[in-house]
Every structure is written in structure tokens, then in C-alpha cells.
Design goal:
The complex is a heterodimer of chains A (549) and B (334).
Chain A lengths: L11 E2 L11 E5 L5 H5 L6 H8 L5 H10 L5 H7 L3 H5 L11 H15 L13 E5 L3 H12 L3 E6 L7 H4 L8 H12 L4 E4 L6 H8 L3 E4 L5 E2 L12 E3 H7 L11 E5 L3 H12 L4 E5 L11 H9 L3 E3 L2 E7 L2 E9 L5 E11 L2 E4 L3 E2 L13 E2 L2 E2 L12 E3 L10 H19 L36 H4 L12 H8 L13 H5 L5 E3 L2 H7 L3 E3 L9 H5 L5 E5 L3
Parallel strand pairs in A: 3-4, 3-6, 4-5, 6-19, 8-15, 9-10, 9-15, 10-11
Antiparallel strand pairs in A: 2-22, 7-16, 12-13, 13-14, 17-18, 20-21
Helix pairs in contact in A: 2-3, 3-6, 4-6, 6-16, 7-14, 11-12
Chain B lengths: L48 H16 L4 E5 L3 H6 L4 E2 L5 E3 L5 H14 L6 E7 H7 L1 H10 L4 E6 L40 H7 L4 E6 L3 H13 L4 E6 L3 H4 L6 H11 L5 E4 L2 E5 L8 H5 L15 H18 L4 H4 L1
Parallel strand pairs in B: 1-3, 1-4, 4-5, 5-7, 6-7
Antiparallel strand pairs in B: 6-8, 8-9
Helix pairs in contact in B: 1-7, 3-5
């Protein structure tokens, strides 16, 4: 008797019984669009780079490279982005959002410390592109165009590259060493950067120098003025100029008591800068209430922590040397501020206007086909202006004015310029359905609160321009990355493989895994279609679809 | 819990595995090379909790014993759906005799192994709640009393599902079965009858008694592993929802098992030598209604008018379990 251990009778195997024929619905793996990705103005695939970062170690570099496919400024983004991704994060409905922004900064800083770089591997196209403006939008476009194989020249009127990242965002939010490294990396791709050169004649440059396309990204550097009746010696400045002059040799003289007029992020930046320059009083005067203020909450909070005072429902009626006349406002039923006729005085050595910015569009004078509306240039869905081959993005086109939006414009414009140069049209890949909170089985996620970024001690930060928000250390960054729920995208938790009562989820390894592009496959010969895998998938990456009968 | 939670991960503590976890922190079920003691092609219904539970338990036992384990099966769904002659789904030595004698046959297999000096081979007896709590109860009690070296596993789906959903000693109060119709003033199964097999097993003061569900894989596997470290009679009672008999969606099998524990209706604990040594705390407590509503066997409680009085009595049972076993974290209980 030659039988296996303890076996006495020959048996057939149930593998002969293909129970897959019972099925009326079949499970399918799917990828959904995570809300963070959907919310990212720069079009980052956040879930994908967090997935890599979760591995730690060498995963950080993979994560950074994934991030760099969409955004050349991880270290900058990790400091100045207003992270709409975190607002959208599904984890807010469990505990708090994943600290995406702080992990991004960790990756950006890791890259700087370790000297990671990227290369332009596409074959040279032989096409030349001129980028006007070395701000976030222009540099982003230059980066992507260079990686697509084009010959790119960036021109900027300033002495240093960076645009508003340098001349608008104070150092305590974005140290210049970080900015310099990330710009140098783009130059390292072979992008020609010409500084101190103002482009006045776009078409002339195209014609005379043989550029095949132009991307305009001149930003919005002119502070909006409001008419404030003022005595002769009253000191009135605009916020853009103040912040700009912080980059020069001489720091602006604001005096001991500074009033800032406006309620945006720039107003906060100026007020906080004034505090650092030695102002004892920095007062933000805003005509509405805090909840209607365009400045982001954390900026207002950080400003208040640093001793910046807020004067709500107030307008400046008149400026005299050393004193302002303020009128108290009231919100009407539509939420619009109305004057009350009640006045008071506010002592101030200087009034800084932070009432928004405008673009200098002189370089477009005489270019046929260009349309300007409300001070910004009209562009099509592909970011091309009315003049063929001339594209525009960033603050000079109608959009929200943030660094991240500008970076996104740069990437989008690069894609369309590339298509245009190759006589094609760029079709964005179809978007997956959204991975809403309801798609998740949150039972599986371990409770884990967010690791907070350390903030500098208040006393230190209101007197220096050292960076306010500190980065995460390695352990904390890893912890934070691993809080990601991986909404709508498989992250190899083995749950479907584990919970199938019919052993009909196959775990793939090696070559099988590579061929399938994911770690699991269904064995439809035996799957009865019970749907447990889909129900118990933590991240909603399995759907049940009716069988065709 | 029998196993400290893995703190830092997305799903370290609760999902089957995770690519980032060390192998030993993943469940047996996450292992590409798991033995699949109960292989595919079996004829269990869609979403069968028992098929899942049996594979979980036996795969873990096979790993713990390096595949040196013999299973003795009582009559029941598990036996019928896995072995319609000449097919078998079993990937381990497996014996079936009668409905009521599985514990006795298991005792016999253990005695034979002892006689042969095969201390390395372990024995598992297994059956459903009918074969265990009712028909095989005397044999089980004898096996406990004699101190036989057998782990007996009861897959509890709370009725005789194989023969058409008749009431068993494990059927919960108010549940509709073929023999407890949802009619009259006290519809469904009567309150105050039936038996609590784990507590009766504990009363035998045997080395190990534990309860588990198919919803907490890590917990279940840790208990099997613990049981295989010990010798003598051991008893494991696993709640395995039955979509057919309970009238639930096949996809909800694990969800319902989870709710059974999270409501307090099915306390999950382990005991050694007659004393409770650990309790799985409730993580997200829910009212029994959330559990009951997913099952048509309780549909008569939600008619017009709803039987809130009966639902309240079921809630009181859950609350009693919470107190009796200390199912809440201390902060919550206070």
C-alpha cells in the first residue's frame, strides 16, 4: 500500500467541481481616484507616492521620483502649499487628515540632503520653447518641457529666479536655500535660465530667435491701489513692494506701528514680516469678519500667535502722518460691508496696502488674437491664448493665485505645448470614479492621530526670519505616510486573499504579479460571487459587476 | 486580546496581512503558501462562514503542527459540502463517522496515536453546533472529562442548516427557524432555553476554552496556535454566520460576525482551567438592532408594529454579556 500518511482510500478532488458557474456577479479589481489626488491643483498622484513612502528606506526615493513626475518642487510645496489635499482627505472623517504636506516636505528635504536628481531622458525634439517668467508656473513648465525633450529658455526680469516664491513669500515660510536647490535642479536638466532680461516683444523673440512656442508666466507683481485720502507726509506702501524689498540690500522702513490693509494671505505675510522687522504693533485692518477673510486659517492663527492684531469690520478713510482714520463697517444681509458713519483713530507710522495684485501685460501689446479680461489673459482649456503657439498660465490667467495652482498650470501647459509642437492634441487620460468615504471599510484601519509638526517657540519666531514650521523626523514622517487609507487603490493588505471562503483570490508573486500589474487575481473557475472580498476590502478597490448570462 | 495590536499601520491589526509587515505579524491566511486545508470546489453556499472558519482554523493548526494533524468531522454542512463522494476538498487526513460521535472518534484517534508512540501528530475534532451542543454532547463531555488530547472545534451557525434550518441548542432567542416559527406572542425561538457551550466546557476545568469569530482572523489564529501549544482536551467555539439560515446577504458574512462581537451578543474570550484569562474588548459598540436588521431570521421584529419589547430583551442579553465578561475598555465602562 503506497498511500500518503493516514490515507486509506483513493479520493477525487473537489477541484473537479468548477463552482464558478454558480456566479451571478463577479468581483473586479478597480482603481478609484482618491480625493487628495482630485483636489491637488498640481495634479500629483498623492496616494501613489505615499504608497512608496510607506515602505520607508529606499521607498522614500521612489516616492520622491513619483512626486517629481508631476511637481518639480517637493521641498517648496511641502512648505508653501495650502494643501487642499488634506481638506479633501477621507481620513478627516475617521480622526484627522493625513499630514500629506509634511510628508511631502520630508521627501523634498530628503532629496536635497541626499542629492537626488532627475534626468531628461526623452529624445531631443529639436523644438525650442521660450518661457517668460521664472516663477512657479514658468519653472514648472520649463521642467516638464525639458523632460519631454524640448530645448527650453526661461527669461525673467528679476535678478534671481523664483518669482513670487522669492519676492512674495517671506523667508520664514520658505528658506531661500531650499528654493535655490530646487531651481538649480531644473537648470541641471539643460534649461537655459536668463535673468535680468525683460521680454518686451514676444512675437519678435519668437521670430528672431527661432522659438517654436512661448509660455507666458509673468505673474501678478503690481500691488492694487485703493484711493486713500492722505496727508503729505503719510507713509503708504504696497505689500508687494515691501515683500520684494525684503530680498534687496536694504530692508524697508516700516516704523514701530504698522497697519496692514487687506485680509488675504499677503496681508498676513506683511504683518508678520513687520513684526520681525521690529514693529511693536502690527494691525491688520479688514472690512469684513474673520470667517469671510480670504487668508487661510493657519496663516491667521500663526500671525495671531506672533502678536499680530486684527481689526475686523474696518476701512481706512484717511491717512495722516502717525495716525489713520478708521470707519467701522457693518455687514448687510447679503454679507457685504456697509459704512456706519462711526469713526475712530488708529496710530500707525505706516500703512501697507495688501489689496491684491495685478499683472503687467505690456509685453502682449500688439500681439494679435490676445484677449485680456479683468486684467488677466484669456486662455483655452489647453492654456493657449488666442495667438497660436503662445500659451499662458499662473497668476496672469483667470485662476486661484497660489503656487500650487501655478505649478499645475506649468505642467498642463507643458503637456499641451508638447502636443502642439508635435502636431497633435493632448488628451488627458480619463479620470477614475471618485473614492468617497462610503467606498471604504474603515473597520480595518487602526486608529492613529496625526503627528503634529513642531512649531518654533513663539519668542524666537517673531523676531527672526528662521523657518516657523519644522519638518518631520524620519520616524514621524513614516508614521504619517502610513496613516494613508489608500482610498480606492489596492495597497497589498492580503484581505481579499484571506477572506474568500472559496480560495478564489490568488496571491500573485514575481512575474505573475508584474504581468497582472497588481498583487492579486480572481480565480473565476471557482469564485461563487459572494462579494465578501468587495465588502471587506478596506480601501474599496474591488467592485461587483453583474455577469452576462 | 490574545495578541497585542500592531499599532502603527493602516491595517496592521485587522486585515489579513500587509506588504509592510514582517511575516510573523501577518496572518497564516496572508501566506501565499498557506495549506488551504479546505480547498476550492467545495459546495458550500456563497459566502459560507463555516467554510471560511474551517479553513482559518485548520490552516493555523497545520502551521502550528508542521502539518501533522488529523481532523475528525461530525456530520453536518461542513462534512456534506466538502466530501460528496468521490470528491473531497480536504488537504489533510480527515475522518468522518457519525453525527454524534465525533468527539469519541477523535478520542480514539488520539488513543491510537498514543499507542503508536506518535506524540508528534495532533488531533482535531470538529462539527457544527448541532453535532456539538446537541447530538454529540455526551461524547464531548466525556472527552473533556477523560482528559483526551484533542482540540475540539465547534463551528457555530446557530441551527441545523444542513437539514433545513431547524433550531439547535445554540439558536438565539427570537430567531426564526423551521421549527421556531415567527408567530404568536413570543415569536421565533424561546428566551431562556439553549445552552452556552463555552461556559459548560469551562465547567469541566479543561486546559483551554476559547471563543472567536470569522471576523477577527488574527485573534482566531492566535487562539488556535495557543491551543496547539497545550495538551489535553481543549475547546474552541467559532461563530460562523450562515447566509442561507440567517437570511443575510452573502457578502455580509464577516460584517455580521463582527457585529455579533461588537454588540456584545457573542462575547469573545479565552479561558484556561476554568478561568477567563483574556477578553476581546468591543472596539466600536453598536446596538443589537444593527446586527439583527441584516438578518431575515429576525425580520419579524421589525414589522408593523415593530417588536421593540423583544429587541430590548435581546439588547439586555448583550448588555449582560458586556458586564459579565467586561467587554468594554475601562474608560468606556466607567
Amino acid at each position: 500500500m503506497n498511500k500518503p500518511f493516514a490515507i486509506t482510500l483513493d479520493v477525487g478532488s473537489s477541484l473537479a467541481n468548477k463552482t464558478g458557474s454558480w456566479r451571478t456577479e463577479r468581483p473586479l479589481y478597480r482603481d478609484l481616484l482618491p480625493p487628495c489626488n482630485e483636489a491637488c491643483p498640481a495634479g500629483e498622484n498623492i496616494q501613489a507616492w505615499l504608497y512608496e513612502a510607506e515602505a520607508g528606506g529606499e521607498g522614500y526615493e521612489r516616492a520622491w521620483r513619483k512626486l517629481m513626475e508631476d511637481n518639480p518642487f517637493p521641498a517648496i510645496m511641502g512648505r508653501v502649499c495650502y494643501h487642499p489635499c488634506e481638506t479633501a482627505c477621507n481620513r478627516t472623517q475617521l480622526d484627522t487628515a493625513v499630514g500629506i504636506n509634511s510628508v511631502e516636505r520630508f521627501l523634498g528635504d530628503e532629496a536635497i540632503q541626499r542629492g537626488w536628481t532627475v534626468t531628461a531622458d526623452a529624445a531631443a525634439s529639436g523644438k525650442r520653447v521660450l518661457v517668460v517668467g521664472a516663477g512657479p508656473s514658468g519653472l514648472s513648465a520649463a521642467y516638464h518641457l525639458a523632460r519631454l525633450g524640448h530645448d527650453v529658455t526661461v527669461r525673467d526680469a528679476e535678478e534671481h529666479a523664483g518669482g513670487m516664491m522669492r519676492y512674495g513669500i517671506p523667508r520664514y515660510r520658505l528658506p531661500r536655500e531650499v528654493l535655490d536647490v530646487e531651481i538649480a535642479r531644473i537648470v541641471g536638466l539643460g534649461v537655459t535660465l536668463e535673468l535680468g532680461v525683460r521680454v518686451d516683444d514676444v512675437l519678435g523673440a519668437m521670430r528672431d530667435e527661432g522659438f517654436d512656442a512661448v509660455f507666458l508666466a509673468v505673474g501678478a507683481h503690481i500691488g492694487k491701489r485703493a484711493y486713500v485720502p492722505a496727508g503729505e507726509a503719510a507713509r503708504i506702501l504696497d505689500a508687494v513692494t515691501v515683500l520684494h524689498s525684503m530680498e534687496g540690500e536694504e530692508q524697508p522702513l516700516l516704523g514701530r506701528r504698522v497697519a496692514v490693509y487687506g485680509g488675504g494671505n499677503t496681508a498676513m505675510d506683511v504683518a508678520r514680516t513687520a513684526r520681525r522687522l521690529g514693529a511693536t504693533d502690527a494691525v491688520v485692518v479688514y472690512r469684513r469678519t474673520r470667517d469671510r477673510m480670504p487668508a487661510h486659517d493657519f496663516e491667521v492663527e500663526e500671525a495671531e500667535e506672533e502678536g499680530v492684531l486684527m481689526k475686523w469690520l474696518s476701512t481706512v478713510k484717511r491717512a495722516e502722518p502717525g495716525v489713520l482714520t478708521i470707519e467701522r463697517m457693518e455687514l448687510d444681509e447679503t454679507g457685504f460691508p456697509q459704512p456706519t458713519g462711526e469713526f475712530e483713530e488708529l496710530e500707525a507710522d505706516a500703512l501697507v496696502l495688501a489689496l491684491g495684485q495685478e499683472s503687467d501685460l505690456a509685453l502682449l501689446d500688439g500681439v494679435p488674437g490676445i484677449e485680456v479680461e479683468d486684467g488677466v489673459v484669456r486662455v483655452g482649456p489647453n492654456l493657449m491664448t488666442g495667438h497660436p503657439g503662445v500659451f499662458a498660465g499662473g497668476d496672469m490667467v483667470p485662476a486661484e493665485r497660489t503656487v500650487t495652482v501655478a505649478v499645475g498650470h506649468g505642467k498642463k501647459a507643458a503637456r499641451h505645448i508638447d502636443a502642439w509642437l508635435r502636431d497633435g492634441a493632448s488628451e488627458a487620460a480619463p479620470k477614475h470614479g471618485l473614492a468617497g468615504f462610503g467606498e471604504l471599510n474603515t473597520w480595518y484601519y487602526t486608529d492613529a492621530p496625526r503627528a503634529l509638526q513642531q512649531t518654533l517657540e513663539l519668542a524666537r519666531r517673531s523676531s527672526t526670519f528662521e523657518e516657523v514650521v519644522q519638518g518631520l523626523d524620519e520616524t514621524t514622517a513614516l508614521y504619517e505616510a502610513r496613516r494613508c487609507l489608500s482610498c480606492g487603490n489596492c495597497f497589498d493588505c492580503d484581505n481579499c486573499f484571506g477572506v474568500c471562503p472559496d480560495n478564489s483570490v490568488l496571491k500573485l508573486e514575481g512575474r505573475d504579479r508584474e504581468a497582472a500589474g497588481r498583487g492579486y487575481a480572481f480565480d473565476y473557475d471557482f469564485c461563487k460571487g459572494c462579494g465578501i472580498c468587495a465588502e471587506e476590502c478596506p480601501c474599496g478597490a474591488i467592485e461587483m459587476v453583474p455577469e452576462m448570462v | 486580546m490574545a495578541r497585542p495590536p500592531v499599532k502603527f499601520f493602516q491595517v496592521g491589526s485587522f486585515a489579513a496581512g500587509n506588504r509592510l509587515l514582517d511575516e510573523e505579524e501577518r496572518s497564516v491566511q496572508a501566506d501565499h503558501g498557506r495549506s488551504n486545508a479546505l480547498t476550492k470546489g467545495h459546495r458550500a453556499c456563497q459566502g459560507c462562514g463555516e467554510a471560511l472558519g474551517a479553513r482559518y482554523v485548520l490552516d493555523a493548526a497545520m502551521r502550528a503542527t508542521e502539518n501533522r494533524v488529523i481532523a475528525v468531522n461530525a456530520t453536518g454542512c461542513l462534512e456534506v459540502f466538502s466530501t460528496p463522494y468521490p470528491e473531497s476538498s480536504w488537504q489533510l487526513p480527515w475522518v468522518h463517522s457519525l453525527f454524534g460521535n465525533a468527539p469519541a472518534v477523535a478520542s480514539g484517534v488520539a488513543a491510537a496515536l498514543k499507542a503508536k508512540g506518535r506524540a508528534d501528530v495532533r488531533v482535531i475534532g470538529q462539527g457544527g453546533d448541532g453535532g456539538t451542543l446537541d447530538i454529540g454532547f455526551a461524547c464531548l463531555s466525556g472527552m473533556f472529562e477523560r482528559g483526551d488530547d484533542v482540540l475540539y472545534v465547534c463551528y457555530d451557525n446557530e441551527a441545523y442548516m444542513n437539514t433545513g434550518v431547524q433550531r439547535s441548542g445554540a439558536t438565539p432567542p427570537a430567531a426564526r427557524t423551521a421549527t421556531t416559527k415567527p408567530v404568536g406572542a413570543e415569536p421565533g425561538n424561546a428566551f431562556g432555553q439553549g445552552k452556552n457551550a463555552p461556559l459548560i466546557a469551562m465547567a469541566h476545568e479543561i486546559p483551554y476554552v476559547a471563543t472567536a469569530t470569522v471576523a477577527e482572523l488574527h485573534d482566531l489564529e492566535a487562539k488556535v496556535e495557543r491551543a496547539m501549544e497545550l495538551h489535553g482536551p481543549r475547546y474552541l467555539h467559532v461563530l460562523v454566520p450562515c447566509p442561507l439560515g440567517w437570511g443575510s446577504e452573502s457578502r455580509d458574512t464577516i460584517r455580521i460576525a463582527r457585529l455579533a462581537k461588537e454588540t456584545g451578543l457573542f462575547p469573545v474570550f479565552e479561558a484556561e482551567h476554568g478561568e477567563v484569562v483574556s477578553v476581546s474588548k468591543i472596539r466600536r459598540r453598536v446596538a443589537v438592532e444593527e446586527y439583527l436588521r441584516l438578518q431575515r431570521r429576525f425580520a419579524h421584529l421589525f414589522g408593523d408594529p415593530p417588536r421593540t419589547d423583544v429587541i430590548e430583551r435581546l439588547q439586555a442579553l448583550a448588555d449582560r454579556n458586556v458586564r459579565r465578561f467586561g467587554l468594554l475598555e475601562e474608560a468606556e465602562a466607567a
